[in-house]
Amino acid sequence: MGPLEDAAHQALEQHEWGRAYRLLTERAASRRLSVDELDSLGAVAYLTGREGEAFDRWAEAHAACLEAGDLPRAARLGIQLAQAFGFKGDIGRSSGWVARARQLLDQAPDCIEHGYLEYAAGMCRIFEDDDIPGARELFARAAKVAERFGDRELRALANLGVGRCVIYLGDVGEGLSLLDEVMVSVEAGEVSPIVAGDAYCTVIDGCHEVFDVRRCEVWCESFTRWCDAQPDLVLYRGHCLLHRAELLQLHGRWAEGVAVAREACERLAQPVNLLVIGGAHYVEAELHRLRSEFAEAEQAYERAHQAGCDPHPGLSLLRLAEGRVDAARAGVRRALAQSERAVGRAKVLGPYGEIMLAAGDVDAANAAVHELAGIALEFGSPLLRAQAAQLTGTVRLAQGDPTGALVSLRAALSGWRELEAPYDAARTRLVIAAACDAMGDDDGAAMERRAAEATLDRLAAESGAAATTPGTAHRLPAGLSE
């Protein structure tokens, strides 16, 4: 190995992706690259955001393996392309490469590539058919192959797939345990950078779907450190920024959240990640809505919709804040009707209950409360428990039971404070104030209202938001009047 080879190898080992890309590109200009070199050049091109070049290099390496009769290596490179296309949302190409790899491995002896094929096929089963049980079976088969060959990377990928499927199928605890196991492998450096990046994105997505805020925070901090340690890394930064923006929204750091969400949108657009960019626009829209920047929120919801992300329930809450109750009710009812799994319904039920109360449909809101409380118990999510308790208290107050309302509302307030969610805590205090009014406790109501308004004023001032008015940030939840 000559000086150039030594330098490129060192750059790869030290995760200096820009330098490795330059050295390998220079080498490609002077001679034909080997399969290993093409694979490495494809990887560094991919990590630095040059996905088109990455796909070309991997395809070139795949063709070289076919020419040499190395069917397992050719199949492995095809599976790598399938995974990369799947990550960016190009399902047709992903499925095509899986089919080609399967044809090649039908002619090959028993090898680890059969396990990687099962994993890639499981991905396609989810993307194409939304067949969670079928995908789980394929991921489980991949895990067995990984154990047989002692392949840590395949074991991590298989556990990612099984963990997400198990969560969707209702066993949240088992699913999260598998995802935690994957992250142990990632932080121990047992997997390649591409698998590590995919794992961070997948695990944090899974935690976010079941509203596990603490896990989201832990793994997002780890993800941020991982990205920051690789200055040339482009591919995963947008996804990392998206999750940071979500946490900033919860914690009331809205101005910073808007900036982070916008950067996430920019990074996810170059190269474009169709599966995620809509979510980034949605988070930006939510932050604008909370800041009473309704025109900006409307535009961001529109961008989210254009990218394939349902703009509800956020758009429905925007309509409610604008006083357009009928539009809010229609939008959120449609969103809930389209959500079949608990993961999707949990996102909509809280806003649905609030909007139904504002529309005067207490029975519908009460039904939402019971379903949300059940999902909160199933998921073991402190955030959903706080949300369910707040909605329960609001419903009880609307039903004329201020004493029962206060029990639930105090539990909700405690939950929001533990989660460091100041905005939600302040809105809960406003409902507590209304319950105190109903019981004739004028002093208690005044104290709760002052505490809530102090928090809301601070959030508006810190975020640089437009001045709040009745009907926006200080509006009582569920359309309750003073």
Short description:
The protein is mainly alpha-helical. Helices cover 78% and strands 0% of the residues.
Question: Descriptors for this entry?
Answer:
78% helix, single chain, 482 residues, mainly alpha
Describe the structure.
The chain has 482 residues and is mostly helical. It has 24 helices and no strands. Helix content is 78%, strand content 0%. Helix 2 crosses helix 3. The radius of gyration is 25 Å and the shape is elongated. About 2% of the residues have low confidence.
For the largest beta-sheet, the strand count, sense and barrel status come to: none
Task: Report the total helices.
Answer: 24
- The parts where pLDDT drops under 50 for at least 5 residues are 467-474
Q: What's the gyration radius in Å?
A: 25 Å
Protein structure class: mainly alpha
CA distance, first residue to last residue: 78 Å
Fraction in beta strands: under 5%
Shape: elongated
Helix and strand pattern: HHHHHHHHHHHHHHHHHHHHHHHH
What is the number of strand segments? 0
Helix content: over 70%
Average pLDDT for all residues = 93
